[in-house]
What we know:
The protein starts with 13 loop residues before the first helix and ends in a 6-residue tail after the last helix. Helices cover 73% and strands 0% of the residues. By secondary structure, the protein is mainly α. The radius of gyration is 20 Å and the shape is globular. It folds into two domains: 14-65, Homeodomain-like (Arc Repressor Mutant, subunit A), CATH 1.10.10.60; 83-212, Orthogonal Bundle (Tetracycline Repressor, domain 2), CATH 1.10.357.
Amino acid sequence: MDSGQFPSDKPETRIQKRNREAILEAALDVFSARGFRGATVDQIAREAGLSKPNLLYYFPSKEAIHVALLTGLLDSWLAPLRALDPGGEPIDEILRYVRRKLEMSRQMPRESRLFANDILQGGPHLADLLTGVLKPLVDEKAAVIRDWVAAERIAPVHPYHLIFSIWAQTQHYADFDMQVRALLPAGENDPFPEAEQHLVSLFTRTLKPAAAV
């Protein structure tokens, strides 16, 4: 797949770099709101403040923009899981991961919805990234969690489903932000402080070994 590399061997000028960044920023807005199928090049160009021909000079297609955006965001999106330290205190490490994922939902809601939309549409542009990058990382961290369980440092949990649960519990606040805010009691305008307390308590109870409960 075309990753959207600039069509020249020459280094980008400042204007060219700025235009590429504007396109990707606009695309993040459009794709996160409309999904890949609902987005159009015209919408992205308009959001970026560029003409359609100018946009297509940098990226030959909507797919190229989408792939470049997903690829460019992947490292930062996976950083919290990569940071899970096998040498750390297990519950502390997992709770740190929960907090970082929740903070990403606060700071990066568009990115969360971008990935969620692609998955909901069958992962047409994430398939290679899922199998080539995410799968080995999840396998590695699941093995760490399995070792912690075997050493009775945390309660028996299925390592993969623990990771999936963390994703579901934290990314919900980005992917369903409008629903969360609509359903919370009046006056609770920021769901994140209470969400953090709830999730820390929930996962602490889940992970404490029986002898420590």
